Each structure stands twice: as structure tokens, then as C-alpha cells.
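Aggregate trends can hide what the representation actually does to any particular protein. The sequence in question and its C-alpha cells are set out directly beneath this paragraph.
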Amino acid sequence: MASQGKNRLSKPKSTIGDNDGILSRITTGVSNSPVLYRGKKAASNAACLTKRLLKSTGKAAWIAGTTFLILVVPLIIEMEREQQFNDLELQQASLLGGGGGAVALK
């Protein structure tokens, strides 16, 4: 008899889902919806695409930066050196009385 009383007190497993609250049913319905699945899939694809884009952008920035350092910076340094040399020549010419290097013909 004790075993029969024990069986009467426990709920059958099939009725446990029937007695869940409305909030539980709604959240289960929403979490299993195809719209949510598609949204998660789209967000995952967007994150993957963004990661790849940032990675390739970083590679391109590295290539552009090193090319600038190798090709353009020495050119800028050489142009500055040439400008200083020209300024020095003009200064020396004016001190020697050359009048700036221009000769007037009469």
C-alpha cells in the first residue's frame, strides 16, 4: 500500500509540460522560432564578414605603410636636403656680391 500512495503523489511525466506557465511557453516558442534562428545566423555571418574585412584591411594598411616608409620617406628627405643646399648656395652668392646669380647684359 505504501507503494501505491507513492505512485499517486508523483505526477505523470506527460502532464508536466501541460502545467507549465504561460511565460515558459512563450519563451520556448520564441527561442525555437525560425525568425530567431535566421537572425542569429545573419548576425553570425555579419560577424564573420567583419572579421575577414578587418583582417584584410589590416594587411592592406601594413603594405601601404611599409611602402610609404621605403619609397616616400627617403624621397622627402632628399628633397629637403636639396632645398637646404639651394638655400646655402643662394646665401653664399649674395655674400660674395653675385647679386643672386643673375647677370645683367648691356
Notes: Residues 22-93 form one domain. Residues 10-16 have pLDDT under 50 and may be disordered. Residues 34-95 form the longest helix (62 residues).
